[in-house]
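Can you please make up a protein's amino acid sequence together with its fold in token form to help me picture the idea?
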Amino acid sequence: MKEIIGVYGAAGSHWVGDGFPVRSLFFYADLGERISPFLMLDHAGPATFTPTNQRRGVGTHPHRGFETVTIVYDGEVAHADSAGNSGVIGKGDVQWMTAARGILHQEYHSEAFARQGGTLQMAQLWVNLPAKDKMSAPRYQGIVDSEIPRVALPNDAGTLRVIAGDYHTQDGQAHIGPAQTYSPVNVWDVHLHADKDIYLQAPASHTTILVVLKGSIIVNGSQAVKADQIVLFQRNDERLLIQTHEASTVLFLTGEPLNEPIVGQGPFVMNTQAEIRQAMLDYHAGRFGA
């Protein structure tokens, strides 16, 4: 079994703009190389918004050096960026944005969702880019729910959606996620029924993180983990055991460590302090577009 390094959770919550009340469940400044290639994960909501004609969200802001992965569980989020991409993602959809050498973007509640109000819930993951790819061209992948393979888990334990990477069933069939990635990662959205046991498997060499978004679980027969907590595992084995007493939603994240320096400041994550200074200069000089 994969050994547990620790269980971590959010110390509190904060607002991103006026549209996203979030809890940061892990962050590279605290866990560093142990979570590579992942950098951060925010869980927004579930929060109920009243109808409005005003825009709610976060206005134009920059990123460089990594990717943002937004998974919507309820509500709708509208995106627009300086590379000319725009679109709306709703329940079950995923937005995989590669900032790379630099991008400006906005994230708002969609006009339709703002007008009608309702529940918003989403998770946003930051994935680091290898040094050789940090200055590549920005890229946008809008992935709708119907494009994501959905797999029935053994023993009627629930379902698993393969957003990135691959999941192999017991009969050897491979289910490949639609997201294109710069380094080997698995991002699985797992919905578990109550009172079930399930083994999940990933390469022993991968960083492995289990994120509980809803419900509560027991990991490896002894470790209790509740909503808005994560479990970080050693890179020592391939399997882990999840047991549930209530219906639960978890994100299963694994990735090949980059083994490169991580230097970040705000919306920029690079490999050296000089690269951070250059990112700031480029941003203020307007080199991220408009």
The chain has three helices and 26 strands. The first strand starts at residue 4 and ends at 9. The mean pLDDT is 97.
